[in-house]
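Page 37, top half.
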Amino acid sequence: MFGLDFASPWWLLFLLVVIGIGGGYAYAQVRRRKDAMRFSNFDLLEKVAPKQPEIVRHVPTALVLVGLLLLTVALAGPLTDQRVPRNRATVVLVVDVSLSMEATDVEPSRLAAAQEAGRNFAEGLTPGINLGLVAFAGTASVLVSPTTNREATKSAIDRLQLSERTATGEAIFAAIQSIDTLASVLGGGEDAPPARIVLLSDGKETVPESPDDPRGAYTAARQAAAKGIPVSTISFGTAYGTVVIDGADGSPQQVRVPVDDPSLQEIADLSGGSFFTAQSLEELNDVYDTLEEQIGYEVVRGDASGPWMIAGVLFIAAGLATAVGTRQRLP
């Protein structure tokens, strides 16, 4: 009924009773009209008959019957999909701190923008989620093990430092290990909370040379998929980003550091995660808002009888009030 499932569908049989009451009322009105037509003194009938229009006389009963229909649906326990905050989940935020993150194509810089958005992401996650932080350049470091203490994560984000090279695979492996450690503490197995890795990077993996290497990014993504841990990747930056580094002769050189969408897209695809792009702080915040919705909430089948109950009571109350106001008696 109405596209709903019901916890106690047998209560819907009471709809037959309500329909019977409505039918009985309609039959009584027909009989009453026939009896009235037998009244020979029509002048007297006009004086004693109600003055309000015919349809107004039936409004109170109609309202009460609708109210009974709604209350019957409420008693049947309608169930609908409801969006509720997760009370347990694990998320590891993985942030690229390679030298290319110093590029200023995103104001004030890729790293500074990533830090601000990362703090906003930490603050916006629902309280029941354990959030960890991994930073990576040539190596990966678990800066914060998954915890509900958001201040620890935000403080670690503020202290991120740039370094050389990009070991994306090591970062994913470190995040997986961090998730596994927490799962073992919480019970592991089927009791382990759902987990997600959120990886923000701007460049292609440089350590090792091949992403299919045993410690490469694609290999790590496949392991994440095997463990049921999707990796959502964010390609952050533009195609025209540059940084200044010291050349072989010690003089400063400007080097292009374009984002590498294909590899990050592949990591997301291999792990069962989602791929996003962002070229500004505002876009990055929007991506994190989307992830917060995906990660922080779940859809569950829950009781939806409240609105039906309220509507039913209001219709019955309106019917009784209308009856008293128009007839000076209950229907």
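Page 37, bottom half:
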Amino acid sequence: MKTRYKLAIAVALMCAAGAGAYMPARSYLKQRNKPKWQTAEIEKGKLLYVVNSTGTVKPVLSMHVGAVVSGPVKKLCADFNDEVKKGQLLAVIDPQLYDAAVARDTANLKTRQAEQKRVEAQVAQATNDFTRGQQLFKENPDYISRTELDQLKFGLKSQEAALDVAKAAVEQAQASLNNSLTNKEYTNIISPVDGIVIDRKIDEGQALASSFQAPELFIVAPDLRKKMFIYATVDENDIGMVRKAQTAGQSVEFRVSAYPDDIFKGQIEEIRLSSSELQNVVTYPVIVAASNPDLKLLPGMTAEISFNVEERQNAVKIPNAALRYYPEDRFVRPEDQKLLKGEAWEKKDKDEPEVILSAAEKAASRKKRNSRTVWVVEGELLRAVEVTIGLSDSKFTEMVSGKLKPGDQVVTGTQLP
């Protein structure tokens, strides 16, 4: 009997001990399995919305200096990177053939001028003969017949015509000489503008053939220190934003690989209407102008461009990670779990193509996407907060309206044990 009582007491004590240990063990397991929320702070400050693109640095103007005449290059007077003035000699083509042509045409002109003088003398003699014949015919018709008088008259006209031919020959010879002189002048390659030689495509002694197409000798870029162009290509989805930035006079920031720590600034010079399509992607050329006093921007450099579209100085900023966070329903308050189902349907709709929607429906759908949900910790669960968003950059998105303020913590992730 005593043994039975002892067993009962032992069992009772064991049950009491188990009951006493259950609650701490349950609390321990609950705390151990409790998720750790990754949070970020709502901030207030400057927010800038940009459109990114790439472009190529080019001179505002590139003067391609060519050769009009043929021949070997006798002398080079300019080289790469030389700063030249308008009218400065860049190169000389061997002028021997053109000097000979000038001498030939000069001699031909002198011959034609001498021929003109000879014919002028003949005209003067024929004029005198005709005048004397007229005088004799008036004084005494028996001294000269009318036939002889007609011969003198038409002989004068013939000499006058010969004089016209001689004068035309002189003009032709003068034109040939002018042509030869011009060709000789073309043997001197002259810079058409003040600028910098950015390319030289000939060497001394090289033979040039300008029969069908003028060979290119130099490329001279004027005003490299004043202004450079960056030719950017912008996707059709972003060209409206870039046009908006141009209208507002927003600046453009860009960098080049040669100076990774330097930020260059420019302005949108032009948005060209000539689109191009590559693999079903339509882009538009946008020209950005930037000053270049230190000649850091060189032709051909690749620029990474950011078009500053819109700016907010005192925006309430939500971390983008908080807008992307999507919790499991077991971590959410029961009254907010219906939002998860709605977001699930919305997410499913986003994955479906919009081809079945009208243009007005698509526009309304895009406006509705500005209404979003973020999550804050409330006790051991999460509470949903509806917000309306605006501008966005790489890290933050503007909160246009919502029951959040700077300093509040929003959930960006869940770290499970």
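Margin note: The CA atoms of residues 137 and 144 lie 6 Å apart.
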